[in-house]
Amino acid sequence: MKNKNSQGAQECPSRCPDNSAFKQQKLPAWKPKLTAPSVLSSFFTIGVFCLLMGICIILSARSVKEIQINYSDICLSCSKLRENSSNWDKECNCSVHFTLQENMLGDVFMYYRLQNFYQNHRRYALSRSDAQLLGQDVNIENSNCAPFTTYPNGTPMAPCGAIANSMFNDSIQLSYHLNSYTAIQVPWLKSGNSWWSDKNVKFRNPTSYNLSSAFAGTTRPPYWQKPAYLLDEEDERNNGYINDDFIIWMRVSAFPTFRNLYRRLHHTNQFADGLPAGNYTFHITYNFPVTRLKGKKQVVLSTITWSGGSNLFLGIAYTVSGAVTVLAGFIITAIHLKLRKKKTYFQR
Amino acid sequence: PVNLFEQFQRVANAYFLFLLILQLIPEISSLSWFTTIVPLMVVFTITAVKDATDDCFRHKSDNQVNNRQAEVLIDGRLQNEKWMNVKPGDVIKLENNTFVAADLLLLSSSEPHGLCYIETAELDGETNLKVRQALPVTSELGPDIRRLAEFDGVVVCEPPNNKLDKFTGVLFWKDNRYSLNNEKVLLRGCVLRNTDWCFGMVIFAGPDTKLMQNSGRTKFKRTSIDRLMNTLALWIFGFLVCMGIILAIGNSIWEHQVGAHFRIYLFWNEVVNSSVFSGFLTFWSYIIILNSVVPISLYVSVEVIRLGHSYFINWDRKMYCPQKDTPAEVRTTTLNEELGQIEYIFSDKTGTITQNIMTFNKCSINGKTYGDVYDDLGRKTEINEKTVPVDFSFNPLADRKFQFYDHSLIESIKLGDAMVHEFFRLLSLCHTVMSEEKNAGELIYQVQSPDEGALVTAARNFGFIFKSRTPETITVEEMGKLVTYQLLAILDFNNIRKRMSVIVQTPDGQIKLYCKGADTILFERLHPSNEELMSLTSDHLEEFAGEGLRTLALAYKNLTEEHFKEWFKILQEANTSVDSRNDYLAAAYEEIEKDMMLLGATAIEDKLQEGVTETIASLSLANIKIWVLTGDKQETAMNIGYSCHMLTDTMNEIFIVASHTGMEVREELRKAKEHLFGQSKDLSNSHVFCEKMQESKQDSVLEETVTGDYALVINGHSLALALEGDLENEFVEVACMCKTVICCRVTPLQKAQVVELVKKHRKAVTLAIGDGANDISMIKSAHIGIGISGEEGMQAVLASDYSFAQFRYLKRLLLVHGRWSYFRMCKFLCYFFYKNFAFTLVHFWFGFFCGFSAQTVYDQWFITLFNIVYASLPVLAMGLFDQDVNEQNSMDYAKLYEPGQLNLLFNKRKFFICIAHGLYTSFALFFIPYGAFYNTAGEDGKHIADYQSFAVTVATSLVIVVSVQIALDTSYWTAINRFFILGSIAVYFAILFTMHSDGIFVIFPNHFPFVGNARNSLSQISVWLVILLTTVVSVMPVITFQFLKEDLNPTLTDQVRKLQKARRKQKPLQNYMRRVYRTNSRRSAYAFSHQEGFGELITSGKNM
């Protein structure tokens, strides 16, 4: 050790440390301190800002028109039918009537809402193969798709995994009763509902001369009624893995209660401005069993605003925290003014 | 690979390895393998690099040493051999300026009489040359290789040991026995100087050498924060298990109640087939997820911070000593924050508080004192700048640095006073100094001890110039004429004898014994006719000691030729005995050193180190108790105490314990205690036992009640008794209540015992500072050992954790570096735990919403990188650079040191506050996005409440909240802090967008499933609203509490900071006023004034 030192000393004659600001810990620095004026002003600024923000959000959220219909309760017979899985091939239709009191103007979205469906369960959320959905030829046995990988005879499922297998497969249509005799179908857009990045990057069909041959050698998941390449026969760019309904379903939700976008209103004819007030009927092909898992299904019609949907939480939270902050600001001011005289002594 | 294995031996690392294995089990693995392995790899690389560089240095020097070439005599020829191949029994040739390869018996050398000179800097740090002399019989062998090769002597000696200054053995050669001692041996590590070549026989090689035997293993020291951290890690682990159990039970219930229905979509797989078993697996999964409460990076970060602080200490120019060209050096890098918690300092005196530079100050010759200065009225005055020193210009060889103020002494010499001449003759003869005359008139003395140097230099200046010596003669220039004395014997100094003598024959054939030594010893051996002179001299001695001077008594004796020859025979016999030669020698010395005639006494001033008084004053302001443990005698020790203001006249009481039996010591201690507790406890005097019990109970309470300053002085003998058994408690109790404790006449072992005692009974952090080999035990046993790289050698430095050149740097080390280190480390730990709880507990809340399935909230890559990339650098920067109060103020307001001693900045309570804070933040982090995203859609009607968007939102909020929090915590914003904090956020977004980019997804679709998420989520207003709200909600309460605390109940730190700020505004008004350097003259003035009555009495009556 000593030896090392003496060698070091020979190399640089003076072992005096450098006089740099860094080494002497004298870097120029800003030394902030919580002073009364800065703290109080920040409290009031933030508080007032939050209050205003909260009120704005509440107001805009209140302006959202929304209708929620729990059709798993209304269509009880269908729900019952679906509870027994042996009835999977029996069709069950159900109609739900409702009246729209006010016009729903602007963009109108149709959601399906599931309750108590644990899409965020770890094993469930893992059970997919992104490579397969990217159209790559992968060995599904090695993916995370268990327990929905292959059939006992070895045919792989396409798409594989629990998420894909449990895809929401009700079809919902809405008809508008112009009067008590005539009903017209409300036109909906079924593509363009998912994120661009999902539709164009994350999901890709396997390449082949046509879609059905691309899926050759694979079969549909057990709970599906039709194979993936028949999800939307009308639109080539909405079929197979890049079907919007499928993509939306594959984006698992964060909570057991969630809503997924189902359709967007197509602004034509009577519906150019939105949904006019009046009587409507949902025609639902009831395929997706929820009552077995103590869940519920709803169909939701909603408009949106800049801050999102009709959820008031954010607005209220902002208002409350803004109010609390302002209040705290006042309390602190009071305490500060009242008790500050005490602290004049200074000891060494 | 070996390094890897070693690393896994550390408990923490083994734990993480265990986690890694858990993750490889697919049923349990809740995180991908890389979430643990990436940080683990990073951590291992850092540790490995650190270890490797350490090892590399060690190896390099090892190799260098092992591969040094030595010329070994093999088969009658000299051959080059590597050091590692040298065996005992080999004969080695050494050349000038080479290292000695092993412990050698010196056989012959190029110098006459088989002398050779060595420098022992590597052994003990002394740079003066030492002489070794070969046995006359072997020195005859000379450079004759043939004869050397035939050398077949057998050495019988003691087994290998670590005593550097002792060696006993016998050489059997040609049917003769020759005794061997330390003087005949060259130890490994020495360097040959001024000697062209020498031959030696290897006695010990390799690990048997004294150097190697001495490099004892140091105990591994840990700081109290370390220990606290380990406890906390255990607690956290317990907490983790609790959470795991809660969640596992939740999982079992969920699987039973809800999962059973959900199972149509999610079958059991083959392994998991019951809800209980599922719960069991979930437990392990959650252990994996939640383990990031104690992340791997914690330990590494702590190490990095400590290393950084160590470098700051090394780099500190204010702890660099230009005279000695030594900067402060941190030898143990893991103890820095403990420097901020010191409560007790144990200090050596010699070389630590004092400079160990001796100046000949006064003397008493034949009953007359010299050295005091008197003004015109005959009063003693203090020496100051104006006092005219004695002019030594008549003497061309005088040392110019030497100053003496009493002109009467030089008068006496010039007058030819025989006793005075004899006095200085003794000083110039009786010593072990080596002289070297480089140019004419330029004498350089190589001295063994500074005392001796001072004495010989004094004699030199007064005209008795020691010129040169050979083993048989000493040449002295006495008042201008050269006289050569035959040196018949040197009766050397040792600690038991406490004296040394020489027997010389003057040119006119007279044989004289000159002796100098400790007064107490010497006075016992004087001729009875000296009674009167003795009492006079001892008065003087007391006076000298009272002034803090070191004293020696001098005596001589005339010997007859017969007497000497008779005695010399005894000496020779003693010399050749093997077993207990030292005893025989001592007896022989005893024989001749009696009936001596007293000449007088010398007094040497022991100079204080620079800035000692000031340092001690501010350290005691900082509530650090300083104990001086010295081998010196009581009077000297007390006087040093007075001169550095550890003892003052204003002290209420100074208890002196100097008794010889346990009972007396007990009695004195009890008296002291009674005094301490004052009148309030008068009644309990009679009930000793009752009192004792009460006291042990009220111990802590009583400590507070003691007011006023007390000091305790205890001598080694009493200390030994006080350290025994039941007195221990009493001693500690009394001692700890005193402001100053001085232990004198203590042995090195006792020093360590005292330290251990305080460590045991007070649970305080102790620091030992010393410079000599006798302080090593103390340095090693204290929490922190500091070595002064000073006069007595390097051994203390080698054993220490920190080393610097002067005692006064201790103030800066403790009050600035120690305080900052502690402050930074505490802040770092608080923040680190907060950060990780905030980060991890979100998973816990999420567990209630995802069926307790151990689903993570964040992207796996985020979990991987959070602790090593996103949140590590800002907190490291804070841990390295933060300063609450600048260095000047932390020195000026010594009270700022107290939080460290009381452990206020990081303790269990603080830890729980941090956890609660983290818990709160995680709550906000989870539930605000939950509430906001519940059953809603984005501003474009599309996804917002999907798992991935939620993950991105929470992760972004977390990064922002955590960055804002550290911004609030940082009190010293350097450019680096700014860069790291803003940089971390920037890096977070950069990595986020990269990981969510199209390209990387197409390459690794299975590992980066979050493609396009950042783009879509972060373009939503509501996501930003959520992030903003989360930040506000988690930060505002913290500001409120911090502000209220600072506003209503400001700590001293806050006040000083405020003052600092105010002062900077109105241009600095530096308070250098307190920084008055107390010069030596003032010190001695103080000593005079203190001893006023005493000194006057003696001097007025009997002097002049």
Identify the overall geometry of chain A.
extended
Taken from the alpha-carbon principal axes, the silhouette of chain B is elongated
Helix/strand structural class of chain B? alpha+beta
Low-confidence stretches of chain B: 679-705, 1067-1104
Helix segment tally of chain A: 11
Describe this protein's structure.
The complex is a heterodimer of chains A (348) and B (1104). With 348 residues, chain A is of the alpha+beta class. Chain A contains eleven helices and twelve strands. In chain A, 31% of the residues lie in helices and 18% in strands. Chain A has a five-stranded antiparallel β-sheet. The radius of gyration of chain A is 31 Å and the shape is extended. Classes of the chains: A alpha+beta (348), B alpha+beta (1104).
Secondary structure: elements and pairs:
The complex is a heterodimer of chains A (348) and B (1104).
Chain A: H1 2-11, E1 29-30, H2 36-62, E2 66-70, H3 71-74, H4 76-83, E3 93-100, E4 104-105, E5 109-115, H5 122-126, H6 130-133, H7 162-165, E6 171-177, E7 183-185, E8 188-189, H8 196-202, H9 211-214, H10 244-250, E9 258-265, E10 274-275, E11 278-285, E12 296-302, H11 313-339
Antiparallel strand pairs in A: 2-12, 3-11, 4-10, 5-9, 5-12, 6-7, 6-11, 8-9
Helix pairs in contact in A: 2-11
Chain B: H1 2-9, H2 11-24, H3 33-66, E1 69-74, E2 77-82, E3 91-95, E4 103-109, E5 115-119, H4 121-124, E6 129-133, H5 136-139, H6 145-150, E7 154-157, E8 168-173, E9 176-181, E10 185-186, E11 191-193, E12 197-204, H7 210-214, H8 224-262, H9 275-290, H10 296-315, E13 329-330, E14 342-347, E15 354-365, E16 368-370, H11 407-415, H12 418-429, E17 434-437, E18 443-446, H13 450-461, E19 464-469, E20 473-478, E21 481-491, E22 499-505, E23 511-517, H14 519-524, H15 531-546, E24 549-559, H16 561-576, H17 581-592, E25 597-608, H18 612-621, E26 625-629, H19 634-643, E27 653-657, H20 662-677, H21 688-705, E28 710-715, H22 716-722, H23 727-737, E29 740-744, H24 748-762, E30 765-770, H25 776-781, E31 784-788, H26 795-799, E32 802-804, H27 809-847, H28 860-870, H29 873-881, H30 887-892, H31 898-901, H32 908-933, H33 947-969, E33 973-974, H34 975-995, H35 998-1003, H36 1013-1018, H37 1021-1048, H38 1052-1065, H39 1080-1090, H40 1092-1102
Parallel strand pairs in B: 14-26, 14-30, 26-29, 27-28, 28-29, 30-31, 31-32
Antiparallel strand pairs in B: 1-2, 1-3, 3-12, 4-10, 4-12, 5-6, 5-11, 7-8, 8-9, 13-32, 15-16, 15-25, 17-18, 19-20, 20-21, 21-22, 22-23, 23-24, 24-25
